[in-house]
Design brief:
CATH class of the largest domain in chain B: Mainly Beta
CATH architecture of the largest domain in chain B: Sandwich
Mean pLDDT of chain B: 86
Oligomer: heterodimer
Low-confidence stretches of chain B: 28-33
Shape of chain B: elongated
Largest sheet of chain A: none
Helix content of chain B: 40-55%
Number of helices of chain A: 16
Bound molecules: copper (II) ion
Radius of gyration of chain A: 23 Å
Radius of gyration of chain B: 29 Å
Number of strands of chain B: 10
Strand content of chain B: 15-25%
Number of strands of chain A: 0
Order of helices and strands of chain B: HHHHEEEHEEEEEEEHHHHH
Shape of chain A: globular
Low-confidence stretches of chain A: 1-26
Structural class of chain A: mainly alpha
CATH superfamily of the largest domain in chain B: Cupredoxins -  blue copper proteins
Distance between the termini of chain B: 83 Å
Chain lengths: 553, 386
């Protein structure tokens, strides 16, 4: 266990000068009263905290739904829920986890870290920031409330394919409006992030010196602005088809149900990169810190991220190889999808090269980052298998696909979120978390997540379709193993909650400004916790304060 | 936790994962293909199996190389072993190599992937055609040349056992959830074209032994083809979420040697002739109610429920409804043509005239509706023929 070995980080106050001293003495001018501090807040750290707390809540709600799913699939036969409710659970689990847990969590990280990482006092558009968060609780209250309506929650899968999604009742309107609100929130958040990164950097923080996390978020924000309106358009067309008699997706009225799938996945494929690019960024910050060695191939990392983002726009129909596309179309989408392996490979090789010949220690953030690299790579490799169009006619819509995207999302995105949480918790709170419980959390999670998802590859290859509440007895063994893994993984996350609460309220162990021996970058020259307004005067940028060394010279 | 212990656990986990990948490769020999893709009974399924194994092997090799390098580094390059951190930040040579090599691997993979896809998608001259229509939650099969058609649904035993808290033991049901009342009968060693479509929502027709699945999209007809090598029974399921009973929509193929298949076709044609004669005669009320009850149970009860009480919100009750207790002509029209914008589909081309007449009679008189009238198969035939 290594707490920073340099407790006297006077660096920051030296740099910020007398002005900052005065501010520190005045305890940062935090607004008093719950309403002023949280509801009307325009402070990037407080809004970041709101985002993170909200996404943690959604993570547990979405997780509880996953527990219902795994409990029903524990044995063949229906024991607990009706098929219709089961379909509502799979649909809601996905919507909550994608839009409520993973995406807001990354926006929370962006809020907390981007101003500190680029040497800014706050986000560029603080009131917009307040709005983009406070829309979310209303959006998700509306979405969740459909579960209690007569016509029930959405049950057509998170992809909302018509005509099935149009068979839902009146509650469907609430789902559509909830998606609209989430989209508005994401777009406002993205505008803010882009404006902050492009305008608020400290002098000397040129684009190609920014931390990787800032880079990946900049690219993610452009992806969000490009595709969230597409999703909004698609669900609006569903709304008018359902309630106002239009026929966008109804063949009897001259429409085309497959057109919805094209539009949805034009949004949906970039969406998966929206969830994973910031993860790449966080891991690229953590590995150099604990390897005590600069990131390998900084500019290659930036270009690889940009290439992945570009390619994400031209591969959408690989989700649709079975709908009956022309051969040339299938070939194009197969080749384009296979190409993504190249920049993704570059990233993985660079992370391994960063560890190579380092001086590594294995605190919890590093463990999660290494877990991310290994397990995300497994998910990436099964993605390469899925790209092969002809074989995808077997894989498609089976548990093999379920295993694949859970590998990239859970031990992928979610592990990176946890790595980032452990990495920056000392910075955010000024206290060290419990390293012992952090490690217990990691090992339980890493082992159980594999018990949960690895057997699902076998289930899919053996022929088990996804989204079924009951299955034939040949699938019984692996489903039971998977469910046991699921219960273990789910309960392990209570430890995560415990560690965070302990760190925030109970931990006596003070964290220094730098917190980690090998940590580099502007956020670490601030005190822990940092002042309420991060950098009132721009920090001096030199090689000692940059997260990644300039490899240009 | 001791650093050394941490490493041992880490190594054990990795070893377990690599072992799991290996298991995937070798286990089929022991477990009869339960954890790997089936080789199936067509050229397409064999090609896909081979391609799957090639790509899987490539992935395993890449994974082993990357993870080995990483764990060598984790063992050797640790602070606890006083390893000094090097400070290099890039190596143009290494970066070029690990960009070029993956591109080459991808090109090597793309060649067989392209030929396989062409084989899959470009159908040869076929000898017979079967039209497949998916609807909630059954499959309808039409033998285009022979005029035979029927609906295939989950068999009664599975259907009873799969109810919530039915108390039945799935393991005691033969082929639980993978058995149908009427299998799709096909000849072996014959090139068959499938025309695949749907009536209500999107379904997907998938028998793994054939090597592919194809979506059934309402309003559109997709084509696929097959040539099955060996007679036998092959099972599959609907693969695209299609509503509450998506998991209960199995597919069973009964593949016969050609001569036996021809015999089966002749027998089916005799049955059809008999049915036509039946439409012309006047049925008794009891006959209609008996047949109606079985048709209702097999086709209508999934949505409207056995007791006619329906299932809110999508499926209205039939007991005391304005349709079942309303004018008979409107009732017939609704059943024949369905209702736009609801889950009620058009049954006119799905069921025989006698079945429809019987189901109408039954629903007008059961569940306390007691309308007292009967609908004769003749009436249905006349309305359908204009
Ligand atoms: Cu279906």
């Amino acid at each position: 266990m290594s707490i920073a070995s340099t407790p006297d980080m006077t660096h920051s106050t030296d740099q910020a000068g007398d002005h900052a001293h005065n501010h520190d003495d005045h305890h940062d001018h935090k607004p008093s009263g719950i309403l002023n501090r949280w509801l009307f807040t325009t402070n990037h750290k407080d809004i970041g905290t709101l985002y993170l707390a909200f996404s943690l809540l959604m993570f547990f709600i979405g997780g509880a739904m996953a527990m219902v799913i795994r409990a029903e699939l524990f044995m063949p036969g229906l024991q607990l829920v009706e098929p219709e409710f089961f379909n509502q659970m799979t649909t809601m689990h996905a919507l909550i986890m994608v839009f409520g847990a993973v995406m807001p969590a990354w926006v929370g990280f962006a809020n907390w870290m981007i101003p500190m990482m680029i040497g800014a006092p706050d986000m560029a558009l603080p009131r917009l920031n307040n709005w983009s968060f406070w829309i979310l609780p209303f959006a998700f209250t509306m979405l969740l409330s459909t579960l209690f309506m007569d016509s029930g929650g959405p049950a057509a899968g998170w992809t909302l394919y018509p005509p099935l999604s149009l068979q839902g009742g009146q509650s469907f309107a609430f789902v559509v409006f909830a998606v609209h609100m989430m989209g508005i929130s994401s777009i406002m958040g993205s505008i803010n992030i882009i404006a902050t990164i492009l305008n608020m950097r400290a002098p000397g923080m040129v684009l190609l010196r920014m931390p990787l996390f800032v880079w990946t978020w900049l690219i993610t924000a452009f992806l969000l602005i490009a595709v969230m309106p597409v999703l909004a358009g698609a669900v609006t067309m569903l709304l008018t088809d359902h309630f106002f008699g239009t026929s966008f997706f109804n063949a009897a009225g001259g429409g085309d149900p497959v057109m919805f799938q094209h539009i949805f996945w034009f949004f949906g494929h970039p969406e998966v990169y929206i969830m994973i690019l910031p993860a790449f960024g966080v891991v690229s910050e953590i590995i150099p810190t604990f390897a005590r060695k600069p990131l390998f191939g900084y500019s290659a990392m930036v270009y690889a991220t940009a290439s992945i983002a570009f390619l994400s726009f031209i591969v959408w129909a690989h989700h649709m190889f079975t709908v009956g596309m022309p051969l040339t179309g299938e070939l194009f989408f197969m080749y384009a999808t296979m190409l993504i392996a190249v920049p993704t490979g570059v990233k993985v090789f660079n992370w391994v090269s960063t560890m190579w010949k380092g001086s590594m220690t294995f605190e919890t953030p590093m463990l999660f980052a290494i877990g991310f690299v290994v397990l995300f790579t497994i998910g990436g490799l099964s993605g390469l298998m899925l790209a092969i169009a002809s074989v995808d006619l077997q894989y498609h819509d089976t548990y093999f696909v379920v295993a694949h995207f859970h590998y990239v999302l859970v031990p992928g995105s979610v592990f990176a979120l946890m790595a980032g949480t452990y990495y920056w918790l000392p910075k955010w709170t000024g206290h060290m978390y419990s390293e012992k419980w952090g490690k217990i959390h990691f090992w339980l999670s890493a082992i159980s997540v594999n018990i949960l998802f690895f057997p699902q590859h076998y289930l899919g290859l053996a022929g088990m379709p996804r989204r079924i509440p009951d299955y034939s007895t040949q699938f019984a063994d692996f489903n039971m193993i998977s469910s046991i893994g699921g219960f273990l993984f789910g309960s392990s996350q209570l430890i995560f909650l415990g560690v965070i609460i302990h760190c925030v309220y109970k931990s006596r162990q003070k964290a220094s400004g730098q917190a980690w021996e090998g940590a580099r970058g502007l956020e670490w020259i601030l005190s822990s916790p940092p002042p309420y307004h991060s950098f009132n005067t721009p920090p001096v940028i030199d090689s000692s304060t940059l997260a990644h060394v300039d490899e240009a010279h | 936790m001791k650093k050394q212990n941490t490493f041992i656990v880490a190594a054990a986990v990795t070893a377990a994962m690599i072992a799991a990948f290996w298991l995937l490769l070798v286990a089929p020999g022991y477990t009869g293909n339960e954890i790997n893709m089936t080789r199936g009974v067509t050229d397409q399924s064999e090609i896909n199996y081979q391609l799957h194994m090639i790509v899987l092997w490539i992935c395993v090799v890449i994974g082993v190389i990357v993870f080995s390098a990483m764990f060598v580094s984790i063992v050797l390059h640790r602070k606890s072993k006083d390893h000094e951190a090097a400070q290099f930040t890039h190596s143009t040579k290494a970066e070029i190599i690990w960009t070029i090599i993956p591109v080459l691997i991808l090109i090597v993979m793309a060649v067989p992937a392209t030929t396989a896809l062409i084989h899959m998608e470009v159908a040869p001259e076929t000898e017979m055609t079967v039209k497949i229509t998916g609807f909630q939650w059954r499959w309808k099969y039409e033998y285009v040349e022979d005029g035979i058609q029927f609906i295939s649904s989950l068999d009664a035993e599975s259907n009873a056992a799969r109810r919530l808290a039915s108390g039945a033991e799935p393991a005691a049901v033969d082929n639980y959830l993978l058995e149908v009342d009427k299998p799709l009968v096909l000849p072996a060693e014959t090139k068959i074209k499938f025309l695949i479509t749907a009536d209500d929502v999107i379904h997907s027709w998938w028998v793994p032994a054939l090597g592919w699945k194809r979506d059934a999209v309402p309003g559109f007809i997709n084509e696929a083809w097959t040539e099955i090598r060996e007679p036998g029974i092959y099972r599959g399921q609907c693969a695209e979420l299609c509503g509450k009973d998506h998991g209960f929509m199995p597919i069973v193929l009964k593949v016969l040697p050609k001569a036996e298949f021809d015999q089966w076709v002749r027998q089916q044609k005799r049955l059809m002739a008999h049915e036509e004669a039946e439409v012309e005669r006047l049925w008794s009320r009891e006959e209609l109610m008996d047949l109606g009850k079985s048709v209702y149970t097999a086709q209508c009860a999934t949505c409207h429920q056995g007791d006619g009480q329906g299932l809110a919100p999508a499926f209205p009750p039939l007991a005391g409804s304005t349709v079942t207790r309303g004018p008979v002509s409107e009732h017939i029209d609704l059943v024949l043509n369905g209702r736009e914008g609801t889950a009620m589909q058009a049954w006119g081309n799905m069921l025989s005239d006698a079945d429809i007449a019987a189901a109408l009679t039954y629903t007008r008189n059961a569940f306390g509706n007691d309308m007292g009238d009967v609908v004769q198969p003749q009436m249905i035939a006349r309305i359908k023929n204009g």
